[in-house]
Amino acid sequence: MRRVRTLPIVVLAAALVATGAGTVSAALGDGDARPSATATTRQAPVDPANPCTAPDAAGLRCPDLMMRRPFGLETDRPGRGRVLLRAGNSIENVGAGPASLRGRRVVRGSKFMEADQLVRRADGGTRRVDTAGRLEYKYGHLDRRYWKFHDAARFELWALDATGTKTTVVRTGPKVAYCLRDLERTRPGLRGTPRREVYPACSTNRERRAVTLGTSVGWSDTYPPAYPEQYIDVTGLRGCFAYVHTADPGNALWESDEGNNVAQVVVSLPFREGAPRGRCPGREFGQRYRKAGVATGAIDEAWYAKASAELAAGRGQK
Length: 318
Ligand SMILES: [Ca+2]
Ligand SMILES: [Ca+2]
Fold this sequence. Notes:
318 residues, mainly beta, globular, binds calcium ion
């Protein structure tokens, strides 16, 4: 039977986001050290159903998603007075095993699949775990549709008070579905990271009845600011805000650490690229994403080319 998550966990997670408690990655450097309990500044919400934190979790090689700090913020004016604030995001797996979902279509013709999580066991096998996750056949870059992880990430714009504390969500971004793939090996020194990608571009085959998504240890799925739906509509807003990215906001994927999935920057609106946060108070956290070519769009072209070549060669995810 498909498990339904309990409300208190969702409420607790939301409360932690609201208080800006996602400070794990702020305490870490940009090296390849795996997050440890001593690096955290708060206790992650405890879910008794999570096999990755259960008493027998030592037998599993669980994933751990982390969100890099929103990067490459830029204003986009598509017309009719609208103002979009774009940002890139990078969903990284810093755990001990791959973050992987196996979706299967249960309703013929549906654009959704129901997903189980494939958790690597210490003995080399795989444990299939029920989750609330879904895959969605969703429009993306290269003007194509892909099988993606629905609710893989969330973009939120929070109002800040005079002390820099988040008060209310004033806007959200349209994009929630992400591929989960091995695009960049961002932590080559992490134990257990494969040298070569294991999970290539997401499948574009509408007819598939099942598909497996994943991001390997030490790899990241990165989305440049220019990709479709990588924005929050900030039309008409003025003042101080937190631009927040959260990985796996609905907790559809079990992780060894559920408390390090949030990253944020502070922005002053109207947005100025030379002084993005102006004089606004408030903390920024999440490890910085450093890659040459963000501002020039060069990484966009590199990722387009990589995905395009994989799909042309028939190497998409199966
Ligand atoms: Ca995590
Ligand atoms: Ca999770």
